[in-house]
Amino acid sequence: MATEGQKVVLITGCSSGIGLGIAVMLARDEMKRYYVIATMRDLKRKDKLVEAAGDAYGRTLSLLTLDVCSDESVKQCVDSIKDRHIDILINNAGVGLVGPVEGLSMEDMKQVFETNFFGAVRMIKEVMPDMKRRRSGHIIVISSVMGLQGVTFNDVYSASKFAIEGFCESLAIQLLKFNVTLSMIEPGPVHTEFEMKMIADVSKKEFAGTDAETLQHFRTYYLPSAVNIFQGLGQRPKDIAKVTKKVIESPRPQFHNLTNPLYTPIVALKYADETGNLSVHTFYHMLYNLGGVMDVSVRLMKCLTCGCLRRQTISPV
Ligand SMILES: NC(=O)c1ccc[n+]([C@@H]2O[C@H](COP(=O)([O-])OP(=O)(O)OC[C@H]3O[C@@H](n4cnc5c(N)ncnc54)[C@H](OP(=O)(O)O)[C@@H]3O)[C@@H](O)[C@H]2O)c1
């Protein structure tokens, strides 16, 4: 149970990846400022988290079952927490979906929205009234850079993240009146099971109903560049956890929080040209005309930002 002065943090989707990373980083806080309720839909998947949490498990970290797609599961979980008191809610659970729209089933598309959009809304709806009553709380959503900029062949995933961005941008205004803060974390690619699931999913699917030309664009242009981007620019869950902790600890948290500075110019493109053509055409060229160049650019950008060049400069002593 949380001790006096500790902040109670509930995180969804902690069986792997970013959720696991955030849960462990907060639970292992040196000053023990957080009591983490790490939730997952299937507790049989708890071993990786328990191992990574080490001696924090049972002290500053406990586990509960929670499926963000079920009203009953969400209510049962929140009701089981002492006084339903949650200081910080981190909506992390999410699923991906890539491929040509014609080849994706409506069922799969709805599942993405059910998890990424309605899952987060369901959590907020359950936890927010208590925060408003207490006039205190912080709601965090692990969104994506794709919630700010659409990316081809990620149409539905991107739409689900745009939807949650729009929902939260609207809600944040009202919540300010109740001293409740809302923050979006917007990662670019991160090495987690998400990436593996995407590769496994794509290799299994035939995308029936998609014309041969579109399928060829998907397999020969998009997929290799997606793999390159993950390899070249991918962050680790620990990097996202660090940004999230910084946001939690900030006296005046920002609403938008990109985790990868390399994506700042990409997002800026759409605000630089109100017609929208600049970003659409730039992405078109990057995908269809600059495949090879992009590979080199990704490596170059990674090299420039890794810090090794800075470390090698001679200091003016
Ligand atoms: N990896 C990236 O490149 C990336 C980039 C930007 C944003 N994000 C976002 O980051 C978040 C975490 O993803 P990740 O990269 O850490 O992927 P991950 O390793 O696949 O983790 C996703 C987590 O969500 C859980 N989940 C899925 N459906 C759920 C449900 N109905 N109820 C409760 N939990 C559910 C999964 O649980 P199970 O183990 O039961 O499946 C898993 O714990 C997602 O919102 C994703 O959109 C990821």
Quick rundown:
It comes from Culter alburnus (Topmouth culter). The chain has 317 residues and is of the alpha/beta class.
Structure description:
With 317 residues, the protein is α/β, with parallel strands linked by helices. It has a single domain, classed as Rossmann fold. The protein is 52% helix and 12% strand. The protein has helices at residues 17-27, 47-53, 71-79, 106-134, 155-176, 193-204, 212-233, 237-249, 264-272, 277-288, 291-305, 308-312, and strands spanning 7-11, 34-40, 61-65, 88-91, 137-142, 180-186, 256-258. The protein has a seven-stranded parallel beta sheet, with helices on both faces. Helix 1 links the parallel strand 1 and strand 2 (34-40). Helix 1 runs parallel beside helix 2 (47-53) and helix 3 (71-79) runs parallel beside helix 4. The radius of gyration is 20 Å and the shape is globular. The termini are far apart. Mean pLDDT is 91; it is low at 308-317. Bound molecules: NADP nicotinamide-adenine-dinucleotide phosphate. NADP nicotinamide-adenine-dinucleotide phosphate binds next to helix 1, helix 4 and helix 6. Residues 12-13, 15-19, 40-42, 45, 67-69, 92-95, 115, 119, 142, 144, 187, 189-190, 192-195, 197 line the site of NADP nicotinamide-adenine-dinucleotide phosphate.
Notable characteristics:
alpha/beta, seven-stranded parallel beta sheet, globular, binds NADP nicotinamide-adenine-dinucleotide phosphate, Rossmann fold, 317 residues
